[in-house]
Design goal:
Number of domains: 1
Low-confidence stretches: none
CATH architecture: 3-Layer(aba) Sandwich
Helix content: 25-40%
Largest sheet: 8 strands, parallel
Strand order of the largest sheet: 5-3-2-6-9-10-1-11
Distance between the termini: 20 Å
Radius of gyration: 17 Å
Number of helices: 7
Structural class: alpha/beta
Shape: globular
Strand content: 15-25%
Bound molecules: 2-amino-2-deoxy-6-O-phosphono-alpha-D-glucopyranose
Mean pLDDT: 96
CATH topology: Rossmann fold
């Protein structure tokens, strides 16, 4: 596991964004696994700024998002499809047909079962971007996580509902279920980049980097993968013994 500690979330955006740009330039048909939440936003802003300046060509890039809330239509402002269109896809020349976000309405159970097959047909994910929940969840794989899980319907725990309530009018409006890529789906990616900022992520990062592999901290499953880069700010690194590579 490679650990990079930087000053703040904008620097995380720059470091991670540049990794993605380098890959698109080398491989215009790259397959990316993407994430939502506040952590990836600086990355997406960096990609958009690069596109506006350098015209990096996203036309043939294929993307698969990690998760979606059950019950939210793609047009719902808090759905992850809406988030991705607004924060990234609408601002690049990516072909929307090449962007995949699990569906949370209609026949979402059957669609979830097909999601890993769809990823495999695209050649597998070259780079999977991840945030992490304060309880160590990745995607929406809550503790205790099944490390053999593929994409499916999952229940959100109360702490996640509360953490995500800030995006809704009240916690009662936060869906209690989601469709999420499983831990196995995530580990199938060829390369994984996990980002975190803020002291509320310090405990999850401590477990990820220095803890035992333990399904009560779903992120520790990443220790079983051979190519993981963790990019965090100093506050998220606050509980670590390891110093990592410092970039300012
Ligand atoms: C949500 C998402 C996760 C994300 C996590 C952390 O629960 N399903 O994919 O990593 O929140 O979000 P944030 O980056 O906003 O802290």
């Amino acid at each position: 596991m490679k650990l990079i500690v930087v000053e703040d979330k904008n620097t995380i955006g720059k470091v991670v964004g540049q990794i993605f740009i380098n890959i698109v330039q080398q491989n215009p048909t790259a397959v990316f696994g993407l994430a939502t939440g506040s952590s990836p936003e600086p990355v997406y802003q960096y990609l958009i700024a690069d596109y506006q300046k350098n015209n990096t060509d996203w036309k043939k890039v294929i993307t698969f998002n990690l998760d979606e809330y059950v019950g939210l239509e793609p047009t719902h402002p808090q759905s992850y499809r809406y988030f991705m269109n607004k924060k990234l896809f609408n601002q690049l020349n990516i072909n929307k047909d090449n962007t995949h976000v699990p569906i949370g309405t209609g026949d979402y159970v059957a669609a979830a079962k097909q999601y890993d097959t769809l990823i495999a047909k695209a050649g597998g994910i070259d780079v999977q971007l991840l945030g992490v929940g304060t309880n160590g969840h990745v995607g929406f794989n809550e503790p205790p996580a099944d490390f053999t899980s593929l994409t499916g319907v999952v229940n959100l725990v109360e702490s996640t509902i509360q953490a995500n309530a800030r995006f809704f009018a009240s916690s009662a409006e936060v869906p209690q279920q989601a469709v999420s890529m499983g831990i196995k789906s995530i580990l199938n990616a060829k390369k994984i980049i996990l980002m975190a900022n803020g002291s509320n992520k310090a405990q999850a990062i401590k477990q990820l980097v220095e803890g035992e592999i333990n399904n009560l901290w779903p992120c520790t499953a990443l220790q079983m993968h051979h190519d993981v880069t963790v990019v965090i700010d100093r506050t998220a690194a606050g509980l670590l013994q390891s110093r990592g590579i410092n970039i300012s």
